Amino acid sequence: MACDISGRHVHEGRYLMVCAAVVCEHTPTHVVRVLEIGLSLSTMQPQMSSVCELIRDALSTLSPSFREDVVLLERGELFNVEQWRASSLLERDVRYIESIGERRALEIAHHCALATRELLLRMASH
User: DSSP letters along 70-119, please?
Assistant: First the structure.
């Protein structure tokens, strides 16, 4: 599964981070299908503890059958810590993306997180 966070910056004086955890089947070069999407929100400042909690919350929304899958992240998602440290912080097997298929899975997670955040911000302004 691929995880991405949108909203690590202040917007109108506050934070609104959204994490999308996207479970998908992929090959080395493309995504075959999306099986499930989990989301979580946080208004905390983006620090290591709040980012880890946000990712863990998104993972916990997924069906139990997916909760032990490897978590794919971009290296910068957890402030460029080593991969073994990311696994320790999330208490999960973490891998930084390597293949084109993993990159595409992460792009889907990015679009889910970004679209959800934009929708929430739009709803809050009305």
Answer: PEEE-GGGGTT--HHHHHHHHTS-EEE--SHHHHHHHHHHHHHHHHHHHH
CB-neighbour burial class of residue 11 (10 A; exposed 0-12, middle 13-18, buried 19+): exposed
Residues contacting residue 119 through CB under 8 Å, at least 6 positions apart: none
pLDDT in tens, 52-109: 999 999 999 999 999 889 999 999 999 999 999 999 999 999 999 999 999 999 999 9
- Which two structure tokens, joined as six digits, stand for 15? 């934070």
- Token pair 């999330």: residue: 90
Domain range for 8: 2-124
Determine how β-strand 31-42 pairs with β-strand 71-73: unpaired
Cα–Cα distance measured from residue 90 to residue 49, given in angstroms and rounded to the nearest whole number: 10
- The CATH number of residue 38's host domain is 3.30.420
